[in-house]
Amino acid sequence: MNRLTDELHVRWHGHACFSLDNGYAVIVMDPYRPDMIGYPEFHVPAHAMLASHHHEDHDYPPSVRFLPPPADGWLQEITTGRNWPADPSCWSYRRVMTAHDDQGGQKRGKNTVHILHSAGLTVVHLGDLGHLLTTEQVEAIGSPDLLLIPVGGFYTLDAGQAIEVINQLKPRNIAPMHYQIGYGNMPISSVDSFLRLAAETWQIEDLRGPQLNLTTEVSGQCFVFQYE
Q: Is the confidence at residue 135, as pLDDT, over 50?
């Protein structure tokens, strides 16, 4: 049964892992290997999975409980990297290639930016972006309704660089990811430095949990998800 809604349910599962639910199909992005980074074990129910790159803190299918695809061929479309059919009951999908570092990927490899659209809303997941964007990349990505952006530094953008990328893309709303919350010993910063900078322009919205119901009316918000 088609249950497509006029909002997207966005849920943070820690680190850079988010799931998007449009009421018809669930996509999970960048599921991680828990023991690699010190998070508790988890299993995300989803119809399909996207990974920004193949490091196991972003590409770990065992953390996904795969659901049967809601339409014939739908799962194949995403696993082969092709755009999904232009079906309003599903998703449209694009990707833009970037790098995991500021040396064109020579240090940590390439990184894929995923652009997902459904219910009149566009969500961009920047993965482990490690550099400012080129003019061509900015034009290809566009200005999303929600930008999921790494802010912890060391492996990715740091707080100041994240603000620069936000200014490049001009999203309607933003949400930080890939920062230290007290699990494990990855050498990444907490979200505090980023929030101090973001508060100069954005309304900081501390969510009470890990989920956001995103609608087209929302604008100017920096959403801070709570891990649980």
A: yes
